[in-house]
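Structure representation.

___
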Amino acid sequence: MRRGLTILMYHRILPSEQCIEYPLESLVIPSDVFQKQMQWLAGHCNVMPAREAIEALATGRPFKKPLVAVTFDDGYADNFEVAAPILETQGLRGTFFITSGFVADGAPLWYDRAADAWQRMSHAARKGLARLNSMPSTDIRTWMAWLKQAAPDVRINLVEKAESLAGGSISRGLYRPMSIKQVTALSKRGHEIGSHTVTHPILPQLDDALLKDELERSAQHLSEWTGTDVIGFCYPNGDLDERVERAVLDAGYQYACAMHSGFNRRAVLTRLARLPITMQRTVRGGCTHDALGFRAELCRFRDWIR
């Protein structure tokens, strides 16, 4: 870990009982587990927002402790209400990649609607929808992966169909975004605010005009809310290509995080690697912190022994 920058990726920090019931378990970490993870990082690593960590990496000077950035995607309310106070208690600051349209209007993101509807649907309804769309299985991961590959209009139509089969639209309570005031407050408290687009689209699917709008309008929103320059970006779903990379730079961003795992040494600033921290690999016995599992993830031990 001391040979580069490790960027950790989180989405949601929730109470244990909500994590157990969450449709996409790879996107949640129990709050008490997160507290223990941050406590360990505070004692063993140099933890700073991604912007500062990238600048530190660029100096080339060695560090006595590993360099780590803690990042969050999307802009859920629990990031402000739960994650940020835990970070601050340990003297840490993080980077929050905000989907600005989600914060501005509060409408649930398409993939939350899709996952929630799939979880609520009957097995027969799932099977029928999967067969109708030539999906190989009724597993929720297959459903989500299939939707990501679909054209935007087809995707939304299918999400609406799934909601109808599930008996209604999503309950917004569990999927609340931060407020604009909360985004502003995070910035004032020393956290970095980065962009995650306006609507969380699959960027390579967009034409040039829509791509430019998603990138520029999100940065504009966030800059207006925080009074700071927004130089960091995170690709929704980790989807990118060379055209998207160029557009990110043209929009004024100085770095961009992807979703492939790895250390960042002499980093390609438009393809920074991140390490997803998941329940599957860092939690045991239901929702108990697995200290050894967390440290193994940080060191990429499981990847090394494959």
